Fold this sequence. Notes:
The complex is a heterodimer.
Chain A: E1 5-9, H1 16-23, H2 26-29, E2 34-38, H3 42-50, E3 56-60, H4 61-69, E4 78-87, E5 89-93, H5 95-104, H6 112-128, E6 135-138, H7 144-154, E7 165-168, H8 171-179, E8 185-189, H9 192-198, E9 203-207, E10 216-223, H10 224-229, H11 231-249, H12 254-262, H13 271-279, E11 281-283, E12 290-292, E13 297-298, H14 309-321, H15 329-338, H16 341-348, H17 373-378
Parallel strand pairs in A: 1-2, 1-3, 6-7, 6-8
Antiparallel strand pairs in A: 3-10, 4-10, 4-13, 5-8, 5-9, 11-12
Chain B: E1 9-12, H1 16-28, E2 34-37, H2 43-50, E3 54-58, H3 64-68, E4 81-82, H4 90-99, E5 101-106, H5 111-159, H6 163-177, H7 181-194
Parallel strand pairs in B: 1-2, 1-3
Antiparallel strand pairs in B: 3-5, 4-5
Amino acid sequence: MTAPLRIGFIPLVDAAALIVAVDKGFTAAEGLEVELVREVSWSNVRDKLNIGLFDAAHLLAPVAIASSLGLGQVKVPIAAPFNLGINGNAITVSPALHAALMQEIEGDRFDPLATAKALARVVAKRRKAGAEPLTFGMTFPFSTHNYQLRFWMAAAGVDPDEDLRLVVLPPPYMVDSLANGHVDAFCVGAPWNSVAVDLGIGHILHFVSDILAHAAEKVLAVRQVWADKHPDVVASLVRAAVKAAEFIEQPANLAEAAHILAQPERIGVDAEVIQRTLTGRLKISPDGTLRESGRYLLVGREEAGRPDPVQAAWLYAQMVRWGQAALSPEAVETAMAVFRPDLYDAALGRRPPEQAPAAFGAFAGPVFNPDNIPGHLEAFDVGRWKA
Amino acid sequence: MSAEQSPKIVIVDESPIRAAILEDGLREAGFTQVVHIREMQSLLARIYAVDPDIILIDLENPSRDVLEAMFQVSRAVKRPIAMFVDQSDSASIQASVEAGVSAYIVDGLRKERIKPILDLCVSRFNAFAKLQEELERTKSQLEDRKIIEKAKGILMKVKGLTEDEAYVLLRSTAMREKKKIGEIAQSIITASEMLK
């Protein structure tokens, strides 16, 4: 290839493997010249990838699937040969909502069923008092954040479309919107939850890993036709990303990785805040309370980088549950075909691992079975889907 | 909406100058119903209040993702919104994305009515980008001129040259070293400050 690869990204910590792959020289070592392009919206990333202004992109996993299905956009088949991050999101609530929830909660405050039930009671009380419904912010209609919020609250019978308002907000606006009362809570990736807590205007209610133990978040996305045309480049990109993910997961490299990511033209926040995210040791309350989780964000551990088509099927099932997509066996197949463990394995020159990929570990509902999505969805009371 | 009536167009752009350029163009072309939204808070509520046929948004605007929520089934949406560009129209989408603008069109608006609006949008956005480039260039030229004046003054003082001779020396050095005259001037200023 003569021209450098143009790869789009949104300034979030889960772009870590991509950014470190380029800035630490792992892509150059593979003979790739890469220009990283920082973007301001997922719509831009998606469109620029789809029309070929980007060769690859850091993309919300559900957007890659929606693109392949032609939902809400021009249909362009996408291939995801590398998974950028497992988990990594958190739900942050305003001090007022936090106080209301803690007043209602019965049981462990980190138990998502307990908090969801408390939310249901807060919602009911507000309705009785004639108060405005609560507003929750999330990042995109086709986003993990949207589905994670819905999955959580619906488990206690809160209907996300009837009982409160879910609104899309660009991540950089989340904190301001919480501060000025435009939203009561939000679900977003790092670093924005920590930023809100540091400013004293938010409490981290949940790490999303409380709700789903192992959930695909972002992918390294390329157009399917491009992947077919440039298999060697795809393989090189995967290898560079794998090396970067391994590098980031080494405790000895943490400070250097955080420093690389903190640069103004990359994520552009304090290295210390990024380091907190990578270690999973987060301040969750303005009073300084710390919470540590080994599952907050997985970049390279537990084979986080290897795409798992079952994750894609789960995301598609959420689209069906909330009325974004019609249910069809062909669509399930299309969705699953977006996640390409075969390209990942080929790049590393190895056989598929014998061990099954990590399970979702959802806090509610039956174990997910991609072969029976209608049966799975039947188990949930709240939803918009029609069989 | 009757065929004769001008479609209602909303421009979402935080740059007042660019929005004005676009709005002028649209009005000149006979589109009389144009509303500019600059405030991003409660963007959807504002858009619903106007109830437009077409929404134009600049791609530097993170709130573009907010607009994507309009595709979703929601009680708040009065009329369905669809991106006008269909599979066959990738040239249009490419031109607009490259120009830095995106269009959202309410379902039912005829395609031939949209094309001139999008074309106009692309040309005005490109014109604005060019204008900005020229402004930048003028600014850096002004900056250069100041530096060159200063360097000339140093050369005149140190080497006892006339103003014209000092300029010729700067220019010939720049040509010989294949550099911009402003760069040579800057290095003279830097050197003289170091030697102070």
